[in-house]
């Protein structure tokens, strides 16, 4: 039985798991570990603690499909559309850059439903709150340690966390990464920002003619989404939700500040843009230290192979670009790199 571990329940990890399940003909034990408490990674959807049906996409907002990727990744789009995981974006987003031929999609059940779709398809055993700390090579098998519990053995390991977090791992992996690979991983850079999700009472109305709006004149707020409207879901059973993304300069300046202080500043700035909003019933402040890739790893074809046999491969948007198609391209590259070992 081939024992495979995928680290990271974001889009790249969940899709790698689904593609492995489709590809591996023989018996396969597929495990997926994530340090977070839920699936999604940077495509996370938060629930209001007051009403779990009131949700907000705190990371990725919508999927933009260019004519190039509409063709190249056609099967992925067709599958997600056929299952109702994605639907065309029909609500107005003010200030959005629209290029000819592009199509935009939203996930009505929240953006993390894309990841949940692939996890279900993969049949992987998914474990949350499992932070990988060490990777060692023992008798030609990977021994993977986590913060709690005993280390476990795998024949093949796929890492999909942001590049700086690969460099934080301890054990034999430190010496397996060549100097050139270390430099490539260290050169991957990311923007940083905060997201604030606000969950409101049932019946509350936000009276604006848009579902999302890019803000260009505020030092703190870059984007606002009336998240349920963006996804065209309105109900008498749950209230509206609002998502605010900060600007990158604000994110960088406030990265090490106390979350409560940051949340207060964002709320004050929101008041200048949308005055008179009532108090939300719940809030969720998310720090995105690694938000979107600015520079991806140079000369990497969508993945980085740290060891061939047994295989230890890295994927993720750090090897391509930060969006749906970047992650799909990376997952396909990971599978291509593994094709002679599975
Ligand atoms: C604010 C924001 C807005 C965005 N907007 C858009 C958009 O509108 N459209 C779009 O297409 N894309 C957008 N993106 C980019 C998109 O979200 C990312 O490109 C994509 O989600 C990256 O997926 P990934 O699986 O490669 O990485 P991630 O989603 O980061 O997944 C990596 C996972 O690894 C886990 N992990 C890390 N270290 C460990 C460890 N040691 N042990 C176990 N688990 C670990 C993390 O918890 C995480 O779940 C946005 C991103 C952000 C942050």
TrEMBL record:
Signal peptide per UniProt: 1-25
PANTHER family: RENALASE
Keywords from the named record: FAD, Flavoprotein, Signal
The keyword Phosphoprotein belongs to this UniProt entry's keyword annotation: no
A single GO BP: negative regulation of blood pressure
Origin superkingdom: Eukaryota
Organism taxonomic ancestry: Eukaryota, Metazoa, Chordata, Craniata, Vertebrata
Record-given protein name: Renalase isoform X2
GO cellular component, one term: extracellular region
InterPro entries, alphabetized: Amino_oxidase, FAD/NAD-bd_sf, RNLS
Domain Amine oxidase: residue ranges: 105-331
Originating organism: Cricetulus griseus (Chinese hamster)
Listed Pfam families: Amino_oxidase (PF01593), NAD_binding_8 (PF13450)
An annotated Gene Ontology molecular function: oxidoreductase activity, acting on NAD(P)H
């Amino acid at each position: 039985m081939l024992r495979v571990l995928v680290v990271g329940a974001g889009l790249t990890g969940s899709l790698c798991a689904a593609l492995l399940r489709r590809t591996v003909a023989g018996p396969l034990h597929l495990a997926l570990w994530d340090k977070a408490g839920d699936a999604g990674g940077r495509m996370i959807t938060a629930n209001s603690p007051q009403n779990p049906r009131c949700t907000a996409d705190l990371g990725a907002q919508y999927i933009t499909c260019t004519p190039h990727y509409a063709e190249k990744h056609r099967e992925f789009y067709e599958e997600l559309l056929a299952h109702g995981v994605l639907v065309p974006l029909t609500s107005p987003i003010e200030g959005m850059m629209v290029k000819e031929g592009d199509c935009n999609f939203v996930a009505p059940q929240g953006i993390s439903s894309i990841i949940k779709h692939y996890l279900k398809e993969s049949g992987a055993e998914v474990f949350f709150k499992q932070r990988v700390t060490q990777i060692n090579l023992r008798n030609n098998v990977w021994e993977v340690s986590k913060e709690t519990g005993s280390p476990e053995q795998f024949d093949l390991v796929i890492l999909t966390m942001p590049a700086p977090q690969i460099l934080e791992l301890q054990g034999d992996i430190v010496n397996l990464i060549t100097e050139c690979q270390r430099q490539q991983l260290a050169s991957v850079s990311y923007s940083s920002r905060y997201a604030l999700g606000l969950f409101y009472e049932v019946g509350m109305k936000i009276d604006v003619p848009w579902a999302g709006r890019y803000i260009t004149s505020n030092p703190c707020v870059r984007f606002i989404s009336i998240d349920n409207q963006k996804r065209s879901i309105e109900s008498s059973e749950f209230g509206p939700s609002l998502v605010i993304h900060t600007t990158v300069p604000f994110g960088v300046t406030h990265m090490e500040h106390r979350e409560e202080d940051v949340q207060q500043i964002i709320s004050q700035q929101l008041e200048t843009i949308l005055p008179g909003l009532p108090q939300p019933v719940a809030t969720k402040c998310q720090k995105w230290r690694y938000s979107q890739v600015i520079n991806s790893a140079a000369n990497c074809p969508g993945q980085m192979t740290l060891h061939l046999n047994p295989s230890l491969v890295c994927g993720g948007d750090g090897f391509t670009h930060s969006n749906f198609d970047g992650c799909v391209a990376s997952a396909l590259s990971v599978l291509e790199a593994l094709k002679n070992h599975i």
